[in-house]
């Protein structure tokens, strides 16, 4: 079943694509990553759907740190399912 984002949520995500591409990512373990966005460092936990910047936690939309890690890990669809937070596909 496809997941659809609102226009505002989609705009939020599109706005963060370019900044997320500039981040440096350092794995901590399988699910956690340290992300340096040139201004701040943040810890992203893909398993908990959480970032230490708290934007992902509060808005329930990915911050630039989470998007950078998801892009690196090829988990964008599985991680950012906006309706129920369950992976769209597991392999």
From TrEMBL:
Pfam families: SWIM (PF04434)
Segments forming domain SWIM-type: 33-74
Keyword Zinc-finger: yes
UniProt KW Transmembrane helix keyword: no
GO molecular function: zinc ion binding
Record's keyword terms, sorted: Metal-binding, Zinc, Zinc-finger
Transmembrane segments: none
Full protein name: SWIM-type domain-containing protein
Organism of origin: Dipteronia sinensis
């Amino acid at each position: 079943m496809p997941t659809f984002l609102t226009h505002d949520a989609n705009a939020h995500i599109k706005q963060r694509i370019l900044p997320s591409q500039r981040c440096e990512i350092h794995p901590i373990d399988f699910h956690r990553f340290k992300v340096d966005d040139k201004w701040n460092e943040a810890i992203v936990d893909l398993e908990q759907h959480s970032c230490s910047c708290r934007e992902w936690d509060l808005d329930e939309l990915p911050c630039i740190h989470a998007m950078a890690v998801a892009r690196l890990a090829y988990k964008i669809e599985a991680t950012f399912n906006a309706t129920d937070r369950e992976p769209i596909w597991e392999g």
